[in-house]
Structure formats: C-alpha cells, structure tokens
Amino acid sequence: MSLRRLARTDLAAFQAYRHDPEVGRWQGWQPQTDAQATAFLDEMASCALFEPGCWTQLAIADDLTGHLIGDIGIHISNDATEAEFGFTLARTAQGRGLASAAVREAIQRVFAETPVQRIHAQTDARNTACLRLLDRLGAVHLARIETEFRGEPCVEHRYELARCSR
Fold first, then answer.
1. How far is Cα 157 from Cα 143, in angstroms, rounded to an integer?
2. Whole domain around residue 146: which residue ranges?
3. CA-CA distance, 17 to 89, in Å (whole number)?
4. Which of 2, 37, 42 is closest to 18 using CA atoms?
5. Residue 153 maps to which CATH number?
6. pTM, whole model, 2 decimals?
7. Is 59 within 8 Å of 10 (Cβ atoms)?
8. CB 72 within 8 A of CB 58
9. Which residues form the N-acetyltransferase domain (predicted)?
10. What is d(CA 28, CA 36) in angstroms, rounded to the nearest whole number?
11. Could you give the CA distance from residue 48 to residue 136 in angstroms, rounded to a whole number?
C-alpha cells in the first residue's frame, strides 16, 4: 500500500468503490457522475497538499500495481493546528490491514509536513471496523455525540491523535 496523488486515470476504480452502497454506508459523500468525479480527481491531482482550510484527498494504491484501492481525506484547520481525516477502501481491499497502514502513513505525513498538533476522526458508532482501527492506532476517545446522519438519528464517536513530543 502507498499513498499518492489521485489522477484522472483512477476514474474507473474510484467510481467502482464510490458507487458500492456498502462502502459508502458510513461516508459523508454521495456517489458522483463520471463528469463530477473526473473534476474532483483533477482538482485533487493539482491542489496544494495540506493547505490550511482545505481538504486534501490522497489515493490509497496497491504497491505492486499502483491501482487505486481507496482514498483518504485530510482537512487542515484554518490555523493549521488541527486536522481531521476520513478514509474509504474498496470492499475487495478491506480486512487486510491496508486502511490501518494508509491512515498511519497519512498521520505521519501530516505531522511531518505541517504544524498540526492534533488529528481528529469521527465515525458512526455502528461502523465497528473504523472504531477498531482507531483503537489500533492508539486514538483517544473524546466524545460520544448524538446527531443525525442522512436524516436518521445516530451516535458518533470522536477520537484524537496528538503529535508526540520528542
């Protein structure tokens, strides 16, 4: 697994997992048309990485083939002291530790390339795979939040990873 910039050539793989209802079940995004997805891929291929106030979406790629298997989004706060992340992995790539590796690498890059002090993640309480991943990463549970997702009441959990002081 490696992280790289998204590219227009990722369109077919991107659309395949982004149109899978099981993959999108806990995501805040909705499937896009090919034209919308192409515009998004083009934007992410050329935007500044880790720009304060913006989301950066990176490709999660298979090491051997370079084929897109998912993506990870990172939002840097306006003051560049905090970040938030979210990730998506194609169903065929799940259950092999690839999401954990991608999130670890993304976190390391954010801490190495920005002044961010804390990284947050928030997920639906029913998304047990994501909750387990956050626990494996050593994220600290900050809050249980009663909210609404796609018009239905739900509970979300907010986690934090802090920059290690060395």
1. 6
2. 2-162
3. 7
4. 37
5. 3.40.630.30
6. 0.91
7. yes
8. yes
9. 1-166
10. 16
11. 30
